[in-house]
Specification:
The chain is an alpha+beta fold and about 375 residues long. Helices cover about 45% and strands about 25% of the residues. It is built from 11 helices and 13 strands. The structure holds alpha-D-galactopyranose (GLA). Alpha-D-galactopyranose binds next to helix 5.
């Protein structure tokens, strides 16, 4: 993302002066989907695509915000009743409110922002936006909030202002990202470890199905509810089980008659997925990409058949990729991308084949994104 581009729009829309520029990335996740809100492990990394924003304190109690991509301008105050209607502005408003709730003293500012992380493609454009503003406001107003709390501010913004009961993965990756490294994060304790990620002989590429599920937020919240239902049932017999992360298949079987068939299936997926992340970490330490690949397929299968967050288009892309490397649906699902680790020598053939066959079947091309694992939230100038 070009700083000069954002700066030129900021100058044009406000009084001609400049402010400070901040950026935060989107993320990929190698494995560990829908495990974060189950207290489990995830394995994300920040990417070289994200949001860039320029901000300048304006001496008033109003935020004046311009979305360069949407060409939309909104002005709002910082009190609860000032919540803007435009959904993009609610992310900024939510971050402001969550900082204020934590004792941060912030005031009005002018801002313009733009992004090159595609919206709704499963790469966490919203976390990139939240992290950009959480990081920037904390820095500009000297709020003294640590990075863990900055990630939680983004997550709370989703919960309280955007209607998505998400886990912590996306915001954590966006704030803590490190170039060339994935992060193994324990979503219960927030202990994390950086893993160098240099898949020799493979290239990382995302294929965007360009499918956007209309009701993705409610379907997502629904999955989370299923997990909570199963935990409540298991807890009656095993009080120490706080999250599905603490459960195993035999505990799940004990409550099979008490939970719905759908909730059972969803919990079965999560219990398997929590273990798969740990298996993949071990395999990566030994450079064993065969096992990494096998686990990614198991994840895809589980997300498609048990958790039911895939779709025909993503399953199709997954099938094509099987011959060329390893792949699975990434992020929350309900459309969006597959993540593919493709053997170097097969890369060109794979991309061409995927485009051609997808076009024949669905009448449109998938989008192709090469991604590089990059740094997290930061000040650019
Ligand atoms: C979305 C959410 C995350 C996580 C993933 C699925 O990206 O924001 O918290 O639950 O889905 O792994």
């Amino acid at each position: 993302m070009d700083i000069e581009f954002v700066r030129s729009r900021f100058i044009k829309h406000f009084d001609g002066s400049t402010g400070s520029v901040y950026a935060s990335p989107g993320r990929i996740n190698l494995i560990g989907e829908h495990t974060d809100y189950n207290g489990g492990f995830v394995f994300p990394g920040a990417i070289d695509k994200g949001m860039v924003a320029e901000l300048k304190i304006n001496g008033t109690d109003k935020v004046r915000a311009y979305s360069i991509d949407l060409k939309d301008y909104v002005e709002f105050g910082l009190n609860e009743e000032d919540a803007p209607r435009a959904s993009w502005a609610r992310y900024i408003f939510g971050v402001c409110r969550e900082i204020i709730k934590r004792g941060g003293k912030i005031a009005g500012f002018n801002t313009a922002f733009a992004g090159d992380v595609p919206l709704g493609a499963g790469m966490s454009s919203s976390a990139a936006l939240e992290s950009t503003y959480a990081f920037a406001l904390n820095d500009m107003f000297n709020c003294g909030i640590d990075k863990f709390e900055l990630a939680k501010i983004g997550q709370a913004t989703e919960h309280n202002y955007c209607g998505v009961n998400c886990g912590i993965m996306d915001q954590f990756a966006s704030v803590f990202g490190k170039a060339g490294h994935l992060i193994r994060l324990d979503c219960r304790s927030l202990e994390y470890q950086y893993f160098p990620f240099k898949p020799e002989g493979y290239r990382l590429v995302l294929l965007d199905s360009v499918v956007k599920h209309e009701l993705a937020s409610s379907a997502y919240n629904d999955r989370r509810k299923s997990c909570e239902n199963v935990v409540a049932a298991i807890q009656k017999k095993h009080p120490h089980v706080e999250f599905l992360r603490d459960a195993n298949m035999s505990m799940l079987d004990e409550v099979k008659e008490e939970v719905s068939a759908e909730d059972y299936m969803r919990a079965e997926y999560v219990i398997g997925e929590v273990q798969r992340v740990l298996d993949v970490c071990d395999a990566l330490e030994q450079g064993d990409y065969e096992t990494v690949g096998q686990k990614m397929y198991e994840t895809h299968h589980g997300m498609s058949k048990l958790y039911e967050v895939s779709c025909e288009e993503l399953d199709f892309l997954n099938d094509i990729a099987k011959e060329c490397g390893v792949t699975r649906v990434m992020g929350g699902g309900f459309g969006g991308c597959t993540i593919n680790l493709v053997k170097d020598e097969l890369y060109d053939a794979f991309v061409e084949k995927a485009k051609a066959e997808y076009k024949t079947k669905f009448g449109r091309l998938p989008k192709v994104y090469d991604v590089v694992i990059a740094d997290g939230a930061r000040k650019l100038c």
